[in-house]
Amino acid sequence: MKKSLLIILVLTVNIAFAQRIVTGVITDKTNRPIESVKVSVKNTDLKTFTDATGEYSIEVPAAYGTLEFAKENFKVQVVEITDNVVDLNMTLIADTDLFELSLDELMNIEVITASKKSENQKIAPATIYVVTEKDIIENGYTDLTSLLENVPGVVAIRTDIFAFGGQRGFLSNFSQTLLLVNGREMQNLIASETFIATQFATHNIKQVEILQGPASALYGANALVGVINIITKNDSPDFNGTEYHAGIGTQQTQAQSIVFGKNLNDFRISGSFRYFRSTLWDYKDFIKDTINFRQGFPTKAFPVNQQFKQNSWSLPYAAKISYKGFYAGIEGYELKGSRGLEHISLDYKSQYDYRQLALYYAGTEKEITDKLKINVELQFYKERFWGVNYSFNNAIYDTLIKNGHNPDLPLTDKEIQENFMDVYSQQSSSGSKRYKGNIQLNYVPSQTLSIIGGYTFDMFDLLGIALSTDRLNPDFDETRSIENSMRKPFFRQYKNSLFLQLQKTLFDKLYLTLGGRFDHHNIYKSIFTFRSGLVYTPFQKTSIRFLFGQAFREPTIFELGALTVKKVAIELNPVRMNTFEVGINQSFTSNLIANIVAYKNIATNFIEPTETVIFKNSDKVINIFGIESQLFYKIGKIRTEIGYSYVQKDADDYAGVSTVNLGVYTHRITGGLTFNATDTFTINSRINYYSEIKAKHGNKDITQIITIPSYAKINLTFSYVKIKVYDAEITTQLLVTNVFDSKFYQPDIRIGGPKQFLQPGRQLFCNLIFKF
Questions:
Q1: How far apart are CA 351 and CA 698, in angstroms?
Q2: Exposed, middle or buried, 370 (CB in 10 Å: 0-12/13-18/19+)?
């Protein structure tokens, strides 16, 4: 009995000392309390935040002895905790002058996209480019497209409806890339496209993580060549306040937005709303260019005084509430825009595109033990879209001539309205829907081992589109039938997925990642994808990566035969890809850092058209080799960054010629220079260089390879930052894009009609940011 009591007493004492409660108050150098400072136990998921009085309380396991204190615009402070420390009143977090920090400190960034958990970018098992809120302000990025065009390995092409482009030589409409917002998919439902337009603005962005390379082992389908993960301010618990943004610019551009977040003990409420309106760039002269734009089309068919008018607006929104591990929220947008330059049109004034997409989610995140956490989340998506084209159709034009139209005269407004109006619509439908359930377990048995696993159920219930040539809002038939192009049986798809990932630290220098995913689809059956990564840190300032990953992209309903009754291509298989990477990150000094990565993509089963609406899997293997590099340098008040991308794609046999890198830029350079003239005034300049490119003519009826010359574009951003006015902090900006008003083109990589796309000329935008 005495022995038992002794054992119980020893256990009780051990348990008492196994946990320590550390409390304290965090203040700045003026002795004012600092709210929303993140206080975390290093190498664990344990964390808390200071309240409005600067107070915090955190439980520190005996095995871990380091606390980290972090908040935006303050230095990260690290304190070793000894056994006798229970009170820690910190006055150590001081205001940070960013230009006093070394590059190592500035680039000590945590990312979550590589492993679905927070980890330092330098040891993450993936090539990830991170753009922070500070980068967005300094570089004057107003939307996701302007941000992406400055990322190595990424090409973004403006068409003024949505961005074309892609990653690592796979260029289309970003359909090989998975777009996430806070880790949740935000592709459109009907075709799994990113559809990046003005609705993805930067007002609510805390950080964007662009993962290069396959990520299906973590994220499933469509993460073929990469992932773009937008991490928002309002979703981050350390954002506790209100921001108001107001902007005005050329092309009658107006933008207003508000972002807010409030922590009330265990309860948090946050949200974001933005209104944007613009006429975008005026291409009225370009659309009449019969050589550079509409080459191959009968010139006399088009109205002599053809006008070009755009009127684009967007309304993105987000809201979230949380309480003691339970949360619910909504993420969505409404978007109305012109059709831009996507097609050759007979009437650019009357055509438009309207999009609605909403994601509703609810879940819970619980700590079962100090080593095991679980997250359960349900998601529901709803989407509708509609619009009208007045695209030129050569077959219809020939019919009109046979019926008496004089080919020497332009088409009349009546002929255009009656014969070339092309309506696509879900306006009268209940909308496409997606139902998704996720369970994720994070198990950390020790400081050197972590295991993440999960299960996902995913069901799409898609609707096609009602087509009409005379009604702007055609009737919609939701009867499920193979004959009904609006709702064929295979539009309803579902799958079950399991994934598991293990990360192990070996000898304090090797970081091993192994992961796999099993997806079972009701049409494509079973698909297994695997990833592995080894990060070696032989020295404190050196990390070397060896990576291998697999990915796949599922066919869209259009590729399966949504628009045809002649053939349903259920036998199509997903696109598959293997990627090998090796990279190095090297800090030469505290103010000189370089990254370089080499990769090889091997893609099979690529889906290509055989007729207008008929597709097949290609027998061709696509090989792409590339190099990406970044160099960061800081001296005094000046910081500079240079990114370089090289791509070599296998030759394509087209127009009787075998051409390497057809439709792919061989060289891309992006660079930025930031000068802090005073404590509050910053000047930033950016340059984007595109090498000469050989591309297919954008008119599919012209079998010809065109050459688009190399060009460089320069942007300037002038910023007065963090000006204190009473309780507000104000930042004012002037953005000048394409400073020298240069004329340059990018390729029509989807072969939609235009020979090539003219990019916008000089534009100005003034922005005010109020932080309360």
A1: 21
A2: middle
pLDDT of residue 192: 87
End-to-end Cα spacing for the chain: 64
Is pLDDT larger for residue 99 or for residue 362? 362
**H runs (alpha helix) in 480-580:** 557-560
> Phi and psi at residue 335, in whole multiples of 5°?
-145, 125
Write out the DSSP string of 191-244.
Answer: T-----STTSBSTTEEEEEEEES--HHHH-TT-SSEEEEEEESTTSTT--EEEE
Nearest-angstrom CA–CA distance, 228 and 210: 5
Neighbours of 149 (CB within 10 A): 23
Read off the DSSP letter of residue 290.
T
User: Which residues, including other chains, have CB under 8 Å from residue 320's CB and lie 6 or more apart?
Assistant: 234, 235, 268, 269, 270, 271, 327, 328, 329, 330
Nearest to 103 by CA among 651, 685, 735, 631: 631
The single residue listed with the structure tokens 């996701």 is: 144
pLDDT at 8 over 80: no
Instruction: Please work out, in degrees rounded to the nearest 5, the angle formed at the alpha carbon of residue 422 by the alpha carbons of 418 and 423.
Output: 115
Distance CA 347, CA 325 (A): 53
Q: Which residues of 43-79 are buried (b: 16+ CB within 10 A; e: fewer)?
A: bbebbbbbbeebebebebeeebbebebbbbebbebeb
DSSP, collapsed to helix, strand or coil, labels residue 302 as coil
**pLDDT tens, position by position, 434-480:** 999 999 999 999 989 999 999 999 999 999 999 999 999 999 999 99
Read off the pLDDT of residues 162-184 as tens digits, 9 standing for 90 and up: 999 999 999 888 889 999 999 99
Q: Mean pLDDT check: name the lowest of 40-54, 223-237, 256-270.
A: 40-54
CA distance 188 to 190: 6
Give the Cα separation of 277 and 256 in Å (integer).
9
Other Cβ atoms within 10 Å of 163 Cβ, number: 24
% of the chain residues with pLDDT over 70 = 93
* pLDDT at position 9 over 70: no
| Total number of residues shown for the chain | 772
Q: Count other Cβ atoms within 10 Å, centred on residue 404.
A: 6
If you search the block for the tokens 């697999």, which residue do you land on? Answer: 550
571: left (phi over 0), alpha (psi -120 to 50) or beta: alpha
Q: Which of 53-62, 353-362, 719-728 has the highest mean pLDDT?
A: 353-362
Mean pLDDT for the chain overall: 90
Quick: pLDDT tens for 480-536. 998 898 999 999 999 999 999 999 999 889 999 999 999 999 998 899 999 999 999
Q: What pTM does this model have? A: 0.88
In Å, what is the CA distance from 661 to each residue of 199, 319, 569, 750?
32, 44, 30, 16
What is the 3-state secondary structure of 473-503? CCCCCCCCCCCCCCCCHHHEEEEEEEEEEEE
Q: pLDDT tens digits, residue range 596-637?
A: 999 999 999 988 877 656 788 889 999 999 999 999 999 988
- Which one-letter amino acid corresponds to residue 608? E
The b/e string for 247-265 (b: 16+ C-beta within 10 A; e otherwise) is: bebbeebebbbbbbbebee
Q: How far is residue 666's CA from residue 653's CA, in Å, rounded to a whole number? A: 18
Task: State phi, psi for 244 to the nearest 5 degrees.
Answer: -125, 125
The answer, yes or no, to whether residue 150 has pLDDT greater than 90, is: yes
